[in-house]
Amino acid sequence: MEKYLADAVKRNVLPITSRCNVRCLFCSHTGNPLEVNTVSFPHLPFAKINEFLPFLDPGKKIVLGESATIINEGEPLFHPDFKKILLKIRELFPKTPLSITTNGLLLTREMVDFLTSLGEVELVISVNALTPAKRKLIFGFYSDIYPNLYYLSGKIPFTASFVFMPHVVGYEEYVLSIKKLMQLGVEAVRVFLPGFTEKNKQLINAPRDLEKLSQKLFAEFLEERTPVIIEPKRLTDFRAEVLGVTPGGMAYFLKKKDIILKINGQPPFSRMEAHKLLNTPGEKLLEIFRQGELLTFNFSLKPGQKAGAVFYRDIEKERLLGIISKVEKALAKSPLILTSYLATTLIKKGLQKLGANYLVLPVKSRFFGGNIGCAGLLTVEDYLWAVTKVLKVRKPDYLLLPGISFDDRGRDLTGRSYLEIEDYFKIKTEIF
Ligand code: SF4
After folding, report:
1. Which one is the CATH code of 2-231: 3.40.630.30, 3.20.20.70, 2.40.50.460, 1.20.1250.20?
2. Which of 45, 72, 155, 177 has the alpha carbon at shortest distance from 107?
3. Any idea where the Radical SAM core domain is (predicted)?
4. Which residues is 101 bridged to in the sheet?
């Protein structure tokens, strides 16, 4: 367990418990095939957590309650020493921002006051529904977190998340809940289309038109500036289209669906680059495209201020250049880049933008099955299947796989190393 904790801490994620005070209908912890090496542990003793604290990076946000490795994350506020842990973090890292993901059930007024006193805390609250009777359908019991959210509004910045289950709680519940949250000043709303594996397909029972309904939900809030982010999203281009602006953001003049064409005369390579350029302090001249019109705006950002514009996360130019450099170093004549269905087009187009025409193919998640489409859940077994299929029509001389499928030791979620693929096909294999 220690090595998984160390892996998480390297990413500035501090796991403190796998225990949770609820059992959500869609909790991913129940959907894993038996072969998956997930790690669950009870509340970690304070002394053990204390050993890992000095390894956190004070220059980066410290995250609690998010999965970063194969450790199953529980509810951090459920840990009996939660306050003691946070006080220790503050003692060691007085100014480092803290992000805490919680289901909100234990966010009492007293807890809100405590978190406020720490400073530099932001919350990611898995709301899922606000109406108590609807929440019962997800959590199995009545609960009302609205009074606590009302109390924390204006004291601690928070983002709300929903797993989109209109077939369980009704579509209108999302509209009502998001409206109420926007009145409370929520920073952004994230709506996740439920991911399901073959094993929990029946449990989730997602209807076919879920994606269409999620777009309808996005459209309901088109005139509101607060970002509504529907995920996962299969991106097919690098257009820096704005999803919204967080309250207090200096780029408040931007509207949803605006496209950033140039920042100080420079077209951003990607959404990520647009985000970075917008948040760099200094004077800015923006050229944007809004509903058929070209518009320009000036704005200035001081250190510590945020532009607030939110975009989907695409891919950085540096990462694509990294792929090209690996292929060139390997002197590959017919490289094959494998990735998830969600990222294939983006990586292919990004490489083309940089003049590299490589074969990029999607890998289906056979291991998890269901609708799993992200590279983080692809396994060696999936890659073996994909390459076997490709070999029927062509013979690549180099394979490049996304590093996100593997841990620091190059092992997938089932503990198999990507080097097995190289051994099996006798084709040089690396990760990016
Ligand atoms: S709050 Fe998170 S960890 Fe707890 S049951 Fe729900 S999804 Fe699982």
Report:
1. 3.20.20.70
2. 155
3. 6-239
4. 124
Helix (H, G, I), strand (E, B) or coil at 138: helix
pLDDT band at residue 197 using 50, 70 and 90 as cut-offs: confident
pLDDT-based confidence at residue 130 (cuts at 50, 70, 90): very high
Compute the radius of gyration of the chain from its Cα atoms: 22
Report in angstroms the alpha-carbon separations of 428 from 139, 287, 398. Answer: 48, 45, 5
Separation between Cα atoms, residue 160 and residue 182, nearest integer Å: 10
pLDDT at 203: 62
Give 6-21 pLDDT, tens digit per residue: 888 999 999 999 999 9
- pLDDT of 46 higher than 80: yes
Dihedral, CA of residue 270, residue 276, residue 279 and residue 280, to nearest 10 = -120
CATH class of this structure's domain 317-431: alpha beta
More confident call, 12 vs 67: 12
Q: For residue 407, which of 30, 70, 152, 23 has the smallest C-alpha distance?
A: 70
Distance (angstroms) between ligand 1 centre and the Cα of 103 equals 7
Domain ranges of the chain: 2-231, 240-310, 317-431
Alpha carbons 381 and 287: distance in angstroms, whole number: 47
Q: 0.85 exceeded by the pTM?
A: yes
Q: So what's the pLDDT on residue 206?
A: 76
Q: Report the separation in Å between the CA atom of 162 and the middle of ligand 1, taken as the mean of its atom positions.
A: 12
**Structure-token pair, residue 344:** 């294939």
**Distance, C-alpha 89 to centroid of its chain:** 24
Ligand 1: which of 16, 26, 29, 127 to mutate, most ligand atoms within 8 Å of CB? 29
Q: For domain 240-310, say whether CATH 2.30.42.10 is its number.
A: yes
Task: Please give the distance, rounded to the nearest whole angstrom, from the Cα atom of residue 255 to the centre of ligand 1.
Answer: 33
